[in-house]
Amino acid sequence: MILLFIAASVLWYRAEKAIGPVAAMQAEKYARRSSNEVISSVISEYLEETRYTYSDFSAVMCDEKGRVVSVEAVPYNINKVQSELTMRINRRLNEAMEGTVRIPLGTLTGKYLLAGKGPALKVKICPAEEAEVRLKSTFQSAGINQTNHSISAVITVGISSSMPMYSFVTEVSFEYLLAESVIVGEVPAVSRYAWNSL
Predict the structure, then answer these.
(1) Residue 161 in contact with residue 168, Cβ under 8 Å?
(2) Is 89:156 a contact under the CB 8 Å cutoff?
(3) Which of 139, 170, 176, 142 has its CA nearest to residue 157?
(4) Are 98 and 162 in contact (CB under 8 A)?
(5) Residue 169, class by beta-carbon neighbours within 10 Å (0-12 exposed, 13-18 middle, 19+ buried)?
(6) 146-191 pLDDT, tens per residue?
(7) How many domains does the chain have?
(8) Total-model pTM
(9) pLDDT tens-digit profile of 87-113?
């Protein structure tokens, strides 16, 4: 009886060691895909409704000779977008991700020949924490005396995925372009509102 218990324990340990990392990888893949679909849909709908353009987020300031002297953020719109997107994304994630996906047991072994085979395990995916939305500003050279200024939304969210015997929390991050413009002329390295730190 003791030998049988020891043998079962050894087999369980080996199975745990072999399946655990693959199960975590598969759960993360499904969590990332599911959250990406939801967040992409929310971003697309929001931009379609609001029709924001580059000038809604930044103002290019020039001197009397027409030379660019600063690029200033529009704090009201930046805070508004971050707040509205955060609320919409969290609401939609809670509505759409209270479900399950099925992963064949053979897929969890990590073996190519067994992939997609065997009984399916249910994997429950749901938000583990509130999504965080942050607007990011990036300046890149676009040629001689030209600078490409892009404004994007970076969304980070923790997603919980669980299956029999396993439970994982994955942090996923996505970046979506909101607006961009090519600025002709020398652009100051630091703007008045420290856009690059947002």
Answers:
(1) yes
(2) no
(3) 170
(4) no
(5) middle
(6) 888 899 999 998 887 776 666 777 788 899 999 998 887 765 554 5
(7) 1
(8) 0.70
(9) 999 988 888 766 666 777 666 666 666
